[in-house]
Amino acid sequence: MDMIDAAPPYKLRSIEDYEPLIGAEHVARLLGKAGRMRDLHVVNVNSTYYGGGVAELLSSLTLLMNASGIKTGWRVIEGRPDFFSVTKKMHNALQGAAINLTEQKKQVYEEVVYENAVRMHLDHDVVIVHDPQPLPIIQHFRKKSPWIWRCHVDLSAPNAELWDYLAPKVERYDAVVVSLPEYAQRLSTPQRFIMPAINPFSTTNKELSEEEIDERLAHYGIPTDWPLVVQVSRFDRWKDPEGVIEAYRRARKQVDCTLVLVGNVATDDPEGQEVFEALHNCAEERIRILSVQDSALVNALQRRAAVVLQKSIREGFGLTVAEAMWKGTPVIGGRVGGIRHQIEDGVSGYLVENVEQAAERIVQLVADRALRNRMGQAARESVRQRFLMSRLMEDWLDLIGSFEPNFRLRGATER
Ligand code: UDP
Questions:
Q1: 185 C-alpha vs ligand 1 centroid, how far in Å?
Q2: How many domains, the chain?
């Protein structure tokens, strides 16, 4: 069934809107590539509509693809709490934690994915399945087109027992996409590397006036008399919120600043509430801890902050880093995963390995406005060149365009 053309105010952002940011030549190249794929029917499958990088990516990328003439859908699997409890343990284990992988857990996982497969009626030209939650869904379909598993987590040291269990499921796919070459695994399936990107026009990233920023901060009673040190993250131990508070407390002995930790809890993350509650005792006048889903607040904080932290212990990519850098705010990030690929240490931000280093860098940046401005400018420029959604769309078009009729990737020698 065809949709009727949208009437105002429902105008989608299109690739042409990126021209002031990426130039006319790049836009023309993208339009050419998209034009050659017109009417392709693509579907994405993941496990939450909001509350994490994957949802943030899909909400923007699927609309941009549609605006470019490629019919791109987004389906979310449903699951009982015990399912998401198992899949969160898998997520943790893929990032290196231990797991007690019982038959019962495997059964819950596989059964719920099967039930979703029954409901999903996937009959598309390309199927892209995100992360471990829906991974086994492929085994319930007779494949008529390329299937891609897109894994967003930090796979630098996955738990071996879990990987052995998942690998045969992964190998049913025609291609695997991870964010970084260092996440590549031993697989018979060809692997490709695509880093995520941000939508400069979204509520999280669009330009805001100083008045709009003031209004959002005032709405949550966030004091603005002292410089703000901010971390925006799901409440998740991998994001090291305790380490952030500890680094702030040390820095606070030398400079006046206010810490704001803002986080949310994704529907597929049953541990978030617990992590949030454990932090609650740390809250005080100068340490604000907010559990709220408000993208405009995220935007305002990333813009007004003197320093943004992303002190993760593992991080597949870390969209929050690119988001803050795009706003000209220097980021102090953990020297892990995708953060290392975004921040050029000492140029567009700082990479740190522990609480002491984070504290030192907070003091340095809060005390030196000129340094902040310099780093902020370098940060914004690097996001403009490497981490805008236009680049991400092109990477996907190139990948999809390189499947041969037998679903093999052109040039793939892996199998
Ligand atoms: N986010 C948000 N509100 C919050 C915390 C996070 O809107 O309270 C958004 C954040 O702006 C980013 C995404 O959720 O777009 C998180 O993506 P990231 O890659 O940093 O981490 P993930 O949650 O996927 O591990």
A1: 26
A2: 2
